[in-house]
Amino acid sequence: MDTKALTRELRHKGVWYWIRVLAVAILGVLLSNVLADHPPQWMLELRLSAYRILEGTTHRQPEIGTLAVALISDEEFWKGTELQGRRPTKRGYIGKLVKSLCDDGAAVVALDFDLRSPVPDGSLPNHPDYKNETDDLVSAIVEAQETCRIVLPAALNCPNPPDGVCTRDATVLDAYRPRFTDHVSWGYINLPADIRQIPLRRANVDSGTLDSLSQALAAAGPSQFFPPRLEGTREFPYGSFISEQAFAEAHSVFRAGDIANNSPALASVRGKSVLIGGSWHASAFGRGPMVDAHVSPVGSIPGVYMHANYAAAILDGRYYAPAGKVLSSIVDVTIIAAIAVLFALPMGWPRRWLWVGFVGLAISIVSYLLWQNLGLFLEATIPCVLLFCHSLFDEYLKMREELVALRAQAAQGRGRKKTET
């Protein structure tokens, strides 16, 4: 079809068709923004799967480096004589793990535990029943800070992340701050709403600025490496993900029981940055969901592995800047314009849907090229879903128009027959 014929066909659709296209375009952009921030479960799983496929297309795989994970599992939590399945986790036991790891040569030890005070505003800093074990934890930290660096957990209350003003909740360790040296730092343990994004330093905390746990861990590591791109940024770059199995195969997972008992297996912990966290079942030994589990591109994994993944992405430079709302909106509008043209042209439905598939493939290729060559992440899943939905909607309208035309033609035929008789 030449240009003149194409123009004639597009004009033939009439003003109301293009008004509807404009309305759908505006609705599509708004819907895309809403779905980006609040995706339904099925779309979240689809986005995570697509993200994993995109990650798998690169020739360079993420590296664990000197990171390691220390896990309190079902064995220690439910069967152990020290923890006895109690929540909150006994702090004296956590202190013993910190002291043991630092004595065995760990460079950094970070804690992935919620140590918030019972009342977040600090009016009730700690329950008296837990004071002695909190003292034991603090004593272990004070002793361990002489030989290694410690990253302690903080928690933020953010009414409107990532741009809202966040408040820092009080912790049971706040009263002991004067006993900590500059070898002790803090990092917030809140995970982002979009789990694929790396939580970074928050400059809008009411008390100043605060690193995330993973960022504080990366900054405190033996390499002292801190990528300039991440300093002071409020953007949330997208990171690469490493599975639990990959951590285990790299001999970067240590059992809390071995650590507490000073097992010879700890010889390989020297020089590593270790995150201590929980990986036990919530109800009983082997029963109920895993505590602090999160759905990620590599499956459901404990939160301590999420922080380890983010720290690995920072240290390895495996992060990608988000494409931004403007570029995403341009992609959405381009899709809607392409669909409007395709459904305005006279062609059979097989050929039309072939073109729809081609547009979807083009979006995926553009996303891949931006990811691999410019380090820019463009969310292709939502535009492709919108592409499919818009196509179904236009297909329905086109069939409806054809049905109306057929009915009018049939009515006209019946009118002629009556006139002839």
Brief summary:
This protein has 421 residues and is of the alpha/beta class. It is 48% helix and 14% strand.
What does this structure look like?
There is one protein chain. Helices cover 48% and strands 14% of the residues. The protein has 421 residues and is of the alpha/beta class. The protein has a six-stranded parallel beta sheet with strand order 6-3-2-11-1-10, sandwiched between helices. Strands 9-14-15 form a three-stranded mixed beta sheet. A two-stranded antiparallel sheet has the order 4-5. The chain is elongated, with a radius of gyration of 28 Å.
Radius of gyration (CA) equals 28 Å
The description of the largest β-sheet is:
6 strands, parallel
Quaternary structure classification: single chain
The helix/strand order is HHHEHHEHEEEEEEHEHEHEEEHEHHEH
Labels describing this entry:
421 residues; alpha/beta; six-stranded parallel β-sheet; three-stranded mixed β-sheet
Describe the secondary structure blueprint for this structure.
Layout: H1 3-12, H2 15-37, H3 41-56, E1 67-73, H4 74-79, H5 91-103, E2 108-111, H6 131-144, E3 149-154, E4 156-157, E5 167-168, E6 184-188, E7 202-205, E8 208-210, H7 213-220, E9 238-239, H8 244-249, E10 253-255, H9 256-260, E11 273-279, E12 293-296, E13 299-302, H10 303-316, E14 319-322, H11 325-344, H12 349-374, E15 376-377, H13 381-420
Parallel strand pairs: 1-10, 1-11, 2-3, 2-11, 3-6, 14-15
Antiparallel strand pairs: 4-5, 7-8, 9-14, 12-13
Helix pairs in contact: 2-11, 2-13, 5-6, 7-10, 11-12, 11-13, 12-13
